[in-house]
Amino acid sequence: MAKDDNKNNNKMTVEEAGRKGGEATAKNHDREFYEEIGKKGGEATARNHDKEFYEEIGKKGGEARARQSDNNDNDGKMSQEEAGRKGGEARARQRKNDQE
């Protein structure tokens, strides 16, 4: 009913505004724009978080992916959780080296 109320008084919902803004941005920018803002966001995240942050998101991602997988046989491959943990550790080492 809230959407009907908003349409009746010519106001846009937050969802509608966000969707329209995203569509306009997509029309005005190319792939390189999104690559650049993604890179900047990743660099900012790396500056603001430590090894434990990356380990935790890696662990959560690995657990979520494992739940999605119908096949629990890894054929001797590294688990996704382990890959996430190792990725977090590698990123933390890279950040440490960058700061030195």
From TrEMBL:
Residues 1-100 are annotated as: Disordered. InterPro entries: Stress-induced_KGG_rpt (IPR019626), Stress/Virulence-Domain (IPR052590). This is KGG domain-containing protein.
